[in-house]
Amino acid sequence: MQLDLPTIISLLRETIVAPRSAARRVLSIAGGFNLALLAVAFVAVLSAGTSVLLSKFTPPTGKPEIDYLMSQPLQLAGMQALGMLIFGAAVTGIGRLFGGKGRFDQTLMLLAWLDFLLLVLQLGLIVLMLALPPLAGLVSLVAMALIVWLLASFIAELHGFASTTSTLAVIIATVLFLGVVLVLISPLI
User: Fold this and answer.
1) How many Cα atoms occupy the beta-carbon half-sphere of 118 within 13 Å?
2) pLDDT, tens digit, for every residue of 49-87?
């Protein structure tokens, strides 16, 4: 697959209307682990750069850690890339526990594409906030729900699961389980 602007726009559109088909297209890109790492690094740098740039136009958050990160784009990109690697390992491992067949490099490619789509949606939301502020909150909620549905669709396609809805249920159950575990161990830390 050629990665020129018309192809990227077409794939963005397909991701929203036919996510499993789009996931198959992303997975068809040959390149293995090295390309997957490059995709993760590219999206992390692009996302961090955008965040840092946008932070210049907003007041400080009042949270020193966040404000510090917004002045350190490489550190922010590294943290985003590390987060994608950890999440990718979890998606691959948990999927395998349920009989999935996806590989780590494939997971990373899909997560990088999903992160790129999220960046495009965020930029669109910023434009919407400037043009129609009252509508931005509702559109933001719809965008969050869309990202979760796309994640479930991508994971289902990655691992060869038949049902996206069942995959979504497992994602929700896993997040709830991890939340309970974190609450239980937080007093110990």
Assistant:
1) 20
2) 888 887 877 777 788 888 888 888 899 999 999 999 999
Quote the pTM value.
0.89
The packing angle between helices 104-131 and 32-55, to 10°, is 20
Using the structure block, give the residue that is written with the tokens 């490059």.
38
CB 110, CB 26: distance < 8 Å: yes
Residue 96, exposed/middle/buried by CB under 10 A (0-12, 13-18, 19+)?
Answer: middle
**Residue 39's closest CA among 49, 52, 26?**
26
d(CA 67, CA 73): 11
Rounded CA separation 148/58 (Å): 27
